[in-house]
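Hello forum,

I keep getting stuck at the same step: I have a sequence, I want structure tokens, and every attempt I make locally crashes halfway through. Rather than fight my setup again tonight, could one of you with a working pipeline run this one for me? It's a single chain of 875 residues.
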Amino acid sequence: MHIAEKYSPQQIEAKWYDYWTEHRLFHSEPDEREPYTIVIPPPNVTGMLHMGHMLNNTLQDVLVRRARMKGKNACWVPGMDHASIATEAKVVARLREQGIEKSSLTREEFLRHAWEWKEQYGGVILRQLRKLGASCDWDRTVFTMDEARTESVLRVFCDLYEKGRIYRGVRMVNWDPAARTALSDEEVIFRESHGKLYYLRYRVEGMDRDVIVATTRPETILGDTALCVNPNDPRYDWLPQDARVTVPLVGRTIPVIRDEYVDIEFGTGALKVTPAHDVNDYMLGEKYGLETIDIFNDDGTINDKAGLYAGEDRFEVRRRIEGDLDAAGLLEKTEAYTNNVGYSERTGVAIEPKLSMQWFLSMNELAGPATRAVLDDVIRFVPEKYKNTYRHWMENIKDWCISRQLWWGQRIPAWYLPKGGFVVAPTEEEALAKAREATGDAALRLEDLRQDEDVLDTWFSSWLWPISVFDGIRRPDNAEIRYYYPTADLVTGPDIIFFWVARMIMAGYEYRGTMPFRNVYFTGIVRDKIGRKMSKQLGNSPDPLDLIAKYGADGMRVAMLLSSSAGNDVMFDEALCEQGRNFGNKIWNAYRLIGGWSVDPAAAQSENDRLAVAWFEQALGRALRQIEEDFAQYRISEALMKAYKLFWDDFSGLYLEMVKPAYGTPADAATLAATKRFFDALMRILHPFMPFVTEEIWQDLAPRAAGESIMTAPMPEPAAEDARMLARFDLAHEVVSAVRNIRNKKNLPQKETLVLRVIADENYPAEFAPVIRKMANLSQIETATEKDPAAAAFLVKTTQYFVPLAGCIDPEAERRKLADDLTYYEGFLASVMKKLSNERFVQSAPEKVVANERAKQADAEAKIAAIRAQLAALE
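Reply #2:
Ran it on my machine without issues. Output:
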């Protein structure tokens, strides 16, 4: 044995990770084996390891390591996402610290800074994942903005444009004033917001009357171009059909229109119409040909078109305009009001609905096959409850706004012609050729064209991920895409089911004609032990690297897995990390115990040891079958718990105790060999969950060749099932536990041998008598034909057992104890009989309650009879 005396995760983890990478044990190439492929949900290039990453990547690593050991060609592809909005914000902030504004740079200069930042800070999270033990094929690391992925994205854009699926137009979009870009609907998070309802006076032209309008956004009156009432609202019958009203403070008159869209029940039943800044108002504007006045700059300040408050922030204007309206007598009143407000998922600021020229992808045709695949379980969701969430979104899908007003990202491959119009092509050369053809001008030069300034939504890169990581867009028939695609499992959070999962499925059917993955395992949200979502703001999210440093990666992995099951939130408690480390310590100490046994090659195997080996072979087989079923159903937490109990309870708590040689006595060779074989099997079962400690011990169990590893050792196969043996051993174990319980109650030391008498029947496991004798420390087991009232008695199933106590206990102390017990049970019986003698209780109480009291009576009477018999025997 060459392992250290004490278990120290920190001393073994870096050593073995270096060993695995040095021998390229994570690397995969296509071969004749069945492939098992996982693509990592690419973390943002800006990302740092947090508890959600810990959970997600631990689960992936368990699946990948187990697949390797099951003989599959496992390939876990790592990579990073360029994260347009987040990364650009980081680069802008860094430049500002250096006294440089983005606006002072050309696009090329800014991108040089962005790439420098990416090389310096990007990908930290991938390096951190190594500490966790992630067995990614690092040779395959890709980036959503590398050359192959960028070319793939541009080709897909051009293909979809040629198919008529991508179009350009002015539409109402979600505008992020902090990032100064459009967002898709899925990037908007609605939160309850406490604000005010402002009641404003709109003076009717030519009349001495006002229409009162309620609004939550008084600053948008600067863009009002109509006022609308419901034609069925009798409160406004007095308004002339061609009425006009004056916009408060602004002084501009606008028409009154009538439309049933207006909710008579909300506010005053009158609606101000601002087509540039509300999606529903925009539709009314389209319907009635209203003017559109955009009052906001891209950063959320008021522009010159508004006429008032130019250059001021939208929320400052809201504060100021309330006072100005009140001073002008144009504010009827305000009320506290709670409503749902959309916030940017990326920057956290309130979004503005904004009319903007953008690029869109039509989704209806793409959604059809992708919807059927999930509803028909071609792609399996775990847990299944997310199928309904998916179906609802897919059946109500909207076109995807795919353009972003940023510089960091894949630039839209559209070039505008000198006299109007544009061409779409994946390269400058192809764009110029198309432009010359479109204009008929053979002398046209590239500098005569202007490429679109926008970049594509980051998700437009990552929706191709399972295909593009194998270069399946540029080279659709290459050997790797044919071998590795479709992938096996996707492990992800339900929060990106629309952003990413649904879109990858659509892309898979569009570009490969089949699903991108067979199963989707949705993790839960990591919460603290009192149920709060972990976040930096709350200060309740530990740094995973600190936990790994303290408890070891194996301990951390056990903690994450024990507290999680598919789709359910993870209640994380640091105490679980300690439990994980303690389990590693238990494994370590058990191995050292075995290593300390001497062996006598000539010694014969005892019947006790033979039975112990035969039983554990069955216990191991049972656990292997159960774990296999758990993995088939993605019950990964339950699989770990079964492996945990197999080692802690069955192997360490029972088997080792059964076969442990007496102090100073050697073990026989057959039993020691079987024990080491079991240890080898247990390490392989536990390896996907705890890769480091299992590798350390497995390497020590037998001589290994350079590059050999437990991670490529086959998972053990279960022996043929013998259910009867397991059931009979369980009976024997109950007998041992009962004898030990008597020892505890009677204060009899374990080292003192006892006699066990048994009235044998079919439930007496006679074949395990040697095990019962050793484990219960019995001098002998005798067959009895009648009850022994002087003995401590117990029942296992239908078998009666007796432990004679004569000479083992103080008779006087035992009499006192029995007398106390007798007094207690007689008092208990009296209270039961008082109830049962009450006719009213017996007749009116539910039948089940009365039956329960009668059962208490019978139990008490039996105990009283047994105690009296024991007292009589002591006389």
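DSSP finds 27 helices and 31 strands in the chain. If your local run keeps crashing, start a new thread with the error log.
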